[in-house]
């Protein structure tokens, strides 16, 4: 894949294969690496999506489906959540976790849904793997009705000490070792490099605005290692 600014990273088939390989340990290592805080971050992202009973929501790069599950709790049995991902192994785990959610294979850059199909679209810890960030965000905006929300939950690189130092030690040294114990050091060496290549919070807000979203706001949490961005789809789509 390539990053939004065009600098190279792993080719898309290689990234897909990597996520297929780590699917079985993905949830466990997420909890270990974040001390379980990732569930709270997802709940905050759902808050910013502003969805309620009966609404229809798309979760892009859904992985094993944790964010989709949190969304489903908000829209209730009368609502619908669709989760899309390019890793079939991840989707298998997501389907076992939440049979009441429609998990479908698909590419974030070519969403197979009509314009204005959803009340909101989210992506949790997957936007940095988009091969073209602008295109992925534009696709999310396209499938959401005017007035609906697009939310991006993502890791970011802290810039202030002492957390910046701790982040470097944790992600550059400890996380790859966790990956080694899990049998895939390459995948968990890819994680810190993908975070560092990703735009910082202010730059990511600019990417959402460029995708046609208005009232773009963000918060940085987790001591500075996580950002949650949200924007509203303009009523003047295509203008």
Question: Characteristics of this structure?
Answer:
239 residues; alpha/beta; Rossmann fold; 7-stranded mixed beta sheet; 45% helix
Q: What's the gist of this structure?
A:
Helices cover about 45% and strands about 20% of the residues.
Strand adjacency order, main sheet: 3-2-1-4-5-7-6
Number of domains: 1
**SSE order, one letter for each helix or strand:** HHEHEHEEHEHHHEE
CATH architecture: 3-Layer(aba) Sandwich
User: What would the CATH topology be?
Assistant: Rossmann fold
* Low confidence ranges: 1-8
Report the CATH C-level class: Alpha Beta
Overall mean pLDDT = 85
Helices, by number, come to 8
Helix content: 40-55%
Task: Please name the fourth-level CATH homologous superfamily.
Answer: Vaccinia Virus protein VP39
Overall 3D form: globular
Instruction: Give the DSSP E fraction (strand runs of 2 or more residues).
Output: 15-25%
Radius of gyration: 17 Å
Main sheet: strands, sense, barrel? 7 strands, mixed
Q: How far apart lie the N and C ends?
A: 30 Å
> Structural class of the helix and strand makeup?
alpha/beta
Number of strands: 7
